[in-house]
Amino acid sequence: MRFLLLAALSLQAGDLLLRNGRVWTGDSERPWADSIVVKGNRIEQVGRNLKAPGARVIDLRGRLAIPGFHDAHMHFLGGSLGLSQIDLNGICTLETMQRAVAQFATEHPGDSWLHGRGWEYVCLPQGRLPRKEDLDSVVAGRPVFLSAYDGHTAWVNSKALALAGIDRNTVYKGYGEIVRDAQGEPTGALTEGAMGLVRRLLPAPSKEQKLAAMETGMKRLAELGVTSVQNANGNLDELELYDTLLAAGKMTLRASLAMSVGPMVDVPSLQEYAALRQKYAGPALRVGAIKIMLDGVIESYTAAMLEPYTNKPSTSGKPAWTQEQFNTAVARADELGLQVYTHAIGDRAVRMALDGFEHARRVNGARDARHRIEHIETIHPSDLPRFAALGVLPSMQPIHADPGTIEVWSAAIGPERSRLGFAWNSIAKAGGRLVFSSDWPASISVDPIRGLHNAVNRRTISGLPSGGWIPEERVSVQTALRAYTSNAAYAGHQDTYTGTIKPGMLADIAVLSADPFRGTLIDIHKTRADITIYDGRVVHERR
Residues 211, 182: one domain? Predict the structure, then answer.
């Protein structure tokens, strides 16, 4: 009796008891329980038939509770701003995309520019890139700028090209290209760095607009059970936005930023980012990494491949960095204690990244760096075991392997290289620690449940008669959930306080409407986050 009284007195008004369900803890020593006691912002007890007098009781009613989802690679500000822009995600004919653009233009007559994203390469006729005429026919008087779902190609109209001064005589020598027709005229498609020729003209949102968008974005992610995000890009201005939200007590997810750097990055910049690592090391906001873009994407032939593209043998893609530039930057960042994220999609870029991390290890010695390679959409078989050998994390996005989006992707590299497309299982079997995420807004969905569905099925939501696309690369439900929780927390150096459900950890929990361990795998996509708890607070309840 005395123990119960003390327990009641110690529990705060906001404390929680989750009971009468199934709890997958992510803790390999005690993976299952049926109840959780949360005291303040931390998990106090995990077990069976627990009691907590005075706590708010959440009856799980048999539902599954898991650690909150960690999205280990996204672009949160861009995704949040995009929630109020033209949304072409899930629209898969040219005509319906044109109608969506026209409707948005009608509903926003005061917008000087029409801006949006989400179109898919596979949704255009004959797998071609989009053309300015496709937009001119619905919006001619105002400039239009539409990013592909992956963020690596832009579709613009003639008005936008004219305002940017782009014509048949324009020379672009950077990374990427102004796509041209047989007569040398710009077609309205811009890849990689060439997108900036037009994007620089887009009206910049104010700080207040960005903050409001981020609050909307946090609400959206809470609805999906996401309690932590790792930004695969960043700068000092963006860091200030998070700082402002944190100071105002408005953060409902944990955030970390990797500062974007280019091939000409200087030592003082890296030193500045390393200094920020000391200032921002808390559980709510972290800075301690840099982001390097080593190549582009397969669909626009900008991913760096070891061999030429199957349906465009004149190119094998071109890395954005030389091996020497990359090695130098990585070794210096590693010496300063910075983590390195590297975008590498083509098999050549993946090898370059692994070579660079091996060089840094040789120069500086081994440390708990947790360097990462992002995407890894193709890989040479000989490079599979190098992730485990070097301690490099394969940070991948199951949503990008949705079979409904890979027709153009597969045609570009051919069947032989496609065999190791999005090779989650092969990398895991070779000892790599899988880390999963969405790449939002450069993806068809930010919902981790959609990613989980792809990871264990490799099927479109309607299913495929073949049983899935390259089914050998599917992973188990447990492997996929670890990649979205404990492994993702590890990738963000957050695993000492979040990513699992066990005593002492911060109370970041998602309660799901269905149990993927027990249900039919092909129905995983129907699951929703019923309840999301962040830092011990209920931030979402589905009605």
Answer: no
Contacts of 302 (CB under 8 A, 6+ apart): 152, 175, 176, 191, 192, 295, 296, 317, 318
Tokens of 382: 């000989």
Check which CATH number belongs to the domain holding 230 and give it. Answer: 3.20.20.140
239 and 336 assigned to the same domain: yes
* 469 & 422 share domain: yes
Quick: pLDDT tens for 6-60: 333 344 447 999 999 999 999 999 999 999 999 999 999 999 999 999 999 999 9
In this structure, is residue 182 part of a structural domain? yes
Q: Rounded to whole angstroms, how far apart are CA atoms 105 and 86? A: 9
Task: Tell me the CB-side half-sphere exposure of residue 429, using CA atoms within 13 A.
Answer: 10
The residue range of the domain holding 236 is 207-533
Shared domain for 241 and 333, answered yes or no, is yes
Q: Which helix (H) or strand (E) holds 101?
A: helix 94-107
Domain boundary, last residue among 143, 176, 199: 199
State the CB neighbour count (10 A cutoff) for residue 378: 25
- Which candidate, 68, 57, 409, places its Cα nearest to that of 252? 68
Structural domains counted in the chain: 2
Q: Distances in Å between the alpha carbon of 197 and those of 154, 178, 377, 441?
A: 10, 9, 28, 21
Q: Which two tokens stand for residue 3?
A: 């123990």
Neighbouring residues of 418: CB distance < 8 A, sequence distance ≥ 6: 410, 470
The rounded distance, in Å, linking the Cα atoms of 440 and 443 is 5
Instruction: Round to whole Å and give the CA distance between 534 and 255.
Output: 12
Token pair for residue 467? 């049983």
54 part of a folded domain? no
Distance CA 323, CA 125 (A): 37
Going from the C-alpha of 15 to that of each of 32, 36, 422, 506, 534, the distances in angstroms are: 22, 11, 42, 13, 13
Identity of the amino acid at 332: R
Q: Are residues 212 and 91 in the same domain?
A: no
Could you give the 3-state DSSP secondary structure of residue 81?
helix
Report the predicted TM-score, pTM, of the whole model to 2 decimal places: 0.88
Query: Do 337 and 442 lie in a common domain?
Result: yes
pLDDT digits (tens, 9 = 90+) for 372-383: 999 999 999 999
Shared domain check, 92 and 184? yes
Residue closest to 506 by CA, chosen among 539, 533, 526, 474: 533
pLDDT of 129 reads 86
**Mode of pairing for the β-strands spanning 114-119 and 144-148:** parallel
Last residue of a domain, one of 199, 227, 242: 199
57 - beta bridge partners? 17
Average pLDDT over the chain, rounded to an integer: 92
- The reply to whether 172 and 299 lie within a common domain is no
